[in-house]
Amino acid sequence: xxxxxxxxxxxxxxxxxxxxxxxxGVATSPIFGTGMTVIxxxxxxxxxxxxxxxxxxxxxxxxxxxxxxxxxxxxxxxDDTRFAIGDIEIGGREVAVAAGPCSVETxxxxxxxxxxxxxxxxxxxxxxxxxxxxxxYSFQGLKAEGLRLLSLARQETGLPIVSxxxxxxxxxxxxxxxxxxxxxxxxxxxxxxxxxLGQVRRPxxxxxxxxxxxxxxxxxxxxxxxxxxxxVILCERGIRTFEPSTRNTLDxxxxxxxxxxxxxxxxxxxxxxxxxxxxxxxxxxxxxxxxADGLVIEVHNDPRHALxxxxxxxxxxxxxxxxxxxxxxxxxxxxxxxxxxQASQPARKDERTTS
Length: 355
What we know:
This protein has two domains: 2-63, 2-Layer Sandwich (Alpha-Beta Plaits); 83-337, TIM Barrel. 32% of the residues lie in helices and 18% in strands. It has helices at 11-21, 50-54, 107-120, 144-157, 171-177, 191-197, 214-226, 254-261, 270-274, 277-289, 316-332; strands at residues 2-5, 27-32, 37-42, 59-63, 83-85, 88-90, 94-100, 124-126, 161-165, 180-183, 204-207, 232-236, 266-268, 294-298, 336-337. The protein is elongated and about 70 Å long.
């Protein structure tokens, strides 16, 4: 349920209203906007009389919300969520691009790729240190050493780091080395991990699961946001269908649908969606045209010898060409993509929130 307050209602009056509403056994989450204030009621609202609440002098209207997610819901938070990471505003006019190898392999490799993607205009360096793989015999990543090498690349280039966490026991390492914590498709419904990430002040890139609905993706975001961390990015990375010609099927319709359902920024990962490097450019351009706020693209300086996901990785030269064409498409839809050799600064290292 959502309570919309009349324009000009004071903060004190809103707080008094929240205290009164809490007597019905629900939690209240007020959002103070520039023009009006919206109060979300979280819990069992079946016994609450909407007409009784509407009688309050400061209430404009009361609305039922059918979706089970509240904090991530567009109805509850009509304005797009925006937040800064370094000098990039996520969810703003600029389309953020995170680029780098599937796996960190050596110091020379990650430094070379970091310099190349920064020179082409990437705003973030992505790289895997802990690698959840389908086969237990596949390369599982350099783990803590991989995070250390990512930190060295950040020191040289200034690019904030995006990397995937796979276990709660890794969290302290990620808080030390990583600027954006990625939750991969296999952990989208690892609710204990999501709850813990709700207690940290670090942006979370939440990838859609292989076979999960958009509502389930938003519910996973709700787990994080219910802990107090509202800096969540939703990421479409392809879903499992009957079509075998691509690794997954990229659901471009998820972009406008998520924008309708939620106020959270939406990224797209065309590399994992297709499994084919030659498809990454066209789907990246399509994603930006469809309204994506960011892209996650795999780039490797020697894809033929990559330890993981070489067939879907762009070379630095191919990535540079893609960035040039992305700027044209972004401009056509009123967005922008960072120009070459513009480096961002490392994000501030926030600590865990206190409960």
